[in-house]
Amino acid sequence: MQDSLTLFVAGHRLKVDGSEEVSRLLVTPGFPVFVVPDEDVEWLVAFKDQIPRPSHWEALYAFDFEELNVRSVFARVGQDYYYAFDSLDGRRSSVLMRYGGGNTVESTHCSEPFLLRFLLWMAYGMLAAPQKALLIHSSVIVHQGRAVLFLGESGTGKSTHTRLWLEHIPDSHLLNDDSPVLAVEGGIPVVYGSPWSGKTHCYHQLRFPLAAAVRLSQAPYNKIDKLNVLGAFSSLQPSCSPALAQDSHFSDLIVDILSDVVSSVPVFHLSCLPDRDAALTSHDAIFGPLL
């Protein structure tokens, strides 16, 4: 049985150490695409039997996965961060992750595939933020060699809008449909594919410069507006990790990344219908009229 694997995500090598978790990742959609040889590893997520749980903590953020009967809790105790999955009815063993800074995250064993994916999503988010990279909730189209982030709350039509691009805008393809990595490299915002793509199996180990970001809202018409710096920042921030945004340290890192993004690329708000004209409206604002 394989004890470890290394994932190459957005230019960083993350080693996962734990035979049970590795065996699950190797058959979980998305992750095999990002597996590389165990060399030049930067970060480690190590699974172990036990991690001491603090006798008291104050939750920074909590969220219930009702379909799994699990509550997730993000907390900070001193310089250590904890992320726990606790059963709502006591029938499931708790999973506890700890991050004390540096390059290593520790976790107790996690057997539920969905929770394992989410745990690694959180671990990657904490490790990547100091390197000017973050996972951002969005659907990403690549057109003419550049990426466009489509943002919005769940149910606002991000995936529908990117599908309209695929149907009506030539030279378009989908990079990721849920959590791409937005990074700033040498002052330039770029977007990477990731192993986290929601319900859409779209996993690409690719990198593109960011052309624009567009926040969507449903409307009985199609209209796009370019936002000022404050509006642009306010449009991007809600799509970052809500847990990390509750902590002052990670919040500052997120602000630094987004500040670089909004100073470099345009951000728009698109009020739209789910139709062809909506795709053309956003395309023409970013790239110019379709020939």
Which sheet architecture does the biggest sheet show? 9 strands, mixed
Provide mean pLDDT, rounded: 96
- Parts with pLDDT < 50 across at least 5 consecutive residues: none
Shape: globular
CATH topology call of the largest domain: Rossmann fold
What is Rg? 19 Å
Number of domains: 2
- How many individual β-strands? 18
Which CATH C-level class of the largest domain is it?
Alpha Beta
Q: What letter string, H or E per element, gives the SSE order? A: EEHEEEEEEEHEEEHEEEEEHHEH
Q: Tell me the β content.
A: 35-45%
- Gap between N and C termini: 55 Å
Give the neighbour order of strands across the main sheet: 3-1-2-4-9-8-7-6-5
Plain-language structure description:
By secondary structure, this protein is an alpha+beta fold. It has two domains: 4-131, no CATH class; 134-287, Rossmann fold (3-Layer(aba) Sandwich). The protein has six helices and 18 strands. The strands form two sheets. A nine-stranded mixed sheet has the order 3-1-2-4-9-8-7-6-5, with helices on one face. Strands 10, 11, 12, 13, 14, 15, 16, 17 and 18 form a nine-stranded mixed sheet that branches. The N and C termini lie far apart (55 Å). The relative contact order is 0.14. The mean pLDDT is 96.
